[in-house]
Design a protein that fits this description.
7-stranded antiparallel sheet; about 220 residues; two-stranded antiparallel ribbon; single chain; 6 helices; alpha+beta
Length: about 220
């Protein structure tokens, strides 16, 4: 009983573990990093489920320390990422959670067009203009054709949360498209992120202008 009191007193209701979990979730959503968000959620679940005086609580602390390192690395990456423009819809004062969001990003000297569906409840996310956007993007690639890309798939479980990734590479190992399907609760609520990598400035601006014209001013 004394051990439980000391640990609870030391950690408190707003302890460093909660801070790490919360920061991982927020930073993950900001950077559109599904894995980081899921790791923060898993840590929060561990904090809630494992008692401070449990002998296995050290695993929760180890998980948090490892997450701290990842957060610091992602913060460094964040300084090299600039969100140039965004197309999205708002539900009141907040972004809609069940509408596609589109972002034009400058990262590491290259350009990215990111598509995010925060939440959906069917087998596939609603189209909502997404297929036309992808057509515009692929039409801008003269080489390679989509069918000529090398497809690499992976799947991992993080606690009760599942994340599937699909990457499309050229034969010289240049990443063209990165897709993430993540299961928020291993139930019906899911999310999806698709990132297209475009190194050419003129191509990225031309594509983004066409996307804006197609979708209209969704802000």
């Amino acid at each position: 009983m004394r051990k439980e009191y000391d640990l609870a007193h030391e950690l408190g209701p707003q302890n460093w573990l909660d801070v790490v979990a919360g920061e991982a979730v927020v930073l993950g959503w900001f950077l559109k990093d599904a894995e980081l968000t899921m790791r923060g959620t898993m840590l929060a679940e561990g904090i809630a489920k494992v008692h401070f005086d449990d002998d296995s609580f050290f695993k929760v602390e180890a998980q948090a320390l490892d997450l701290v390192k990842t957060i610091e690395e992602r913060k460094k990456d964040q300084t090299q990422v600039q969100f140039l423009d965004e197309i999205c819809e708002y539900d009141g004062k907040n972004k809609s959670l069940n509408k596609w969001e589109y972002s034009l990003i400058l990262s590491g000297g290259g350009y990215q067009i990111m598509m995010l569906m925060p939440e959906y409840f069917d087998r596939e996310p609603p189209d909502d203009g997404k297929s036309r956007v992808e057509e515009i993007i692929w039409e801008s690639f003269k080489d390679p054709a989509f069918g000529e890309l090398v497809k690499v798939e992976d799947s991992k479980m993080m606690g009760v949360q599942k994340m599937d990734t699909t990457d499309y590479y050229t034969h010289d190992k240049k990443l063209v498209c990165h897709k993430v399907d993540f299961d928020h609760e291993c139930k019906r609520k899911r999310g999806q992120i698709i990132i297209y990598h475009i190194n050419d400035y003129a191509q990225s601006i031309t594509v983004w202008t066409k996307i804006r014209a197609t979708l209209g001013q969704r802000k």
